[in-house]
Here is the input.
Amino acid sequence: MKWSELCIHTTNEAIEPISNILHEAGASGVVIEDPSDLVKERESFYGEIYDLNPNDYPEEGVFVKAYLPANSFLAESVDEIKQAVNNLLLYDIDLGTNQLTLNEINEEDWATAWKKYYKPVKISEKVTITPTWEEYKPVSSDEIIIELDPGMAFGTGTHPTTVLSIQALERFISKDQTIIDVGSGSGVLSIASALLGAKEVYAFDLDEIAVESTISNAKLNKVDNKIHAKQNSLLDNVNQQADVIVSNILAEIIMQFEKTAYDCLKPGGLFITSGIIQGKKQQVKDALINAGFEIVEVNQMEDWIAIIAKK
Here is the structure.
């Protein structure tokens, strides 16, 4: 399958409205390439390494990128995006250069080009994530190594939202528990749960590619006997009772199934939520409390929030 990378050269001021336009046009996510990232100081809790190429960034302004299928509707979608972006001028939003470019990308190229930047990284006290194509030797006897090949699914395991999720799982999972992973992506949280002692893990994702990736990575880490991956919309029609539900997903999505999550948890069970931006923290907390949860912890890494709630 071929994809088109749509790149809009614009300003920081226009990032949010343009991102919304791209989402509405069918992009499942956006990439922001801001030259300020080249000089940004980042906290390194577990030895993370950030290696950015200045050639990927504009000298001024920002690149907002999205990926759309290169199908018969592409030209129409691009015209609609251009018009919607230009309409932002009516609201006195500075668009800067406001240049839109398209690049065709083969799925197989897209799936492998990023691999040179993906290295082993220790993300918690016990857990180290390493790509399958990198050699890695454990540095301690109790180190848990997750081998991962995300492929086309979301989740290399190194994003702050994933790190926060795994750190929470490491602290709260007990042996022989049942875990539900909502929005499993590459399966990294399901695998971490299994390796941390969970008896069984139910991994759900709406994306068929993500389900396949979860199954593949579970086999790679020899925990496929514990992980049951299935294509499913959130927790719709799920009757399984869990000790822990973990979901690294958007705040808006979390607030669509917090009551269902409550019903799927055993008494005293935990709901670990991540993928929450700072501005949505209070909304998610309120939604969880209204569903009957007690907030146990609120943790932050960079601009991302994870909330652990108890039934």
Remarks:
- The two ends are 44 Å apart (CA to CA).
- Residues 45-50 have pLDDT under 50 and may be disordered.
- The chain has eight helices and 14 strands.
- Residues 120 and 173 are 23 Å apart (CA to CA).
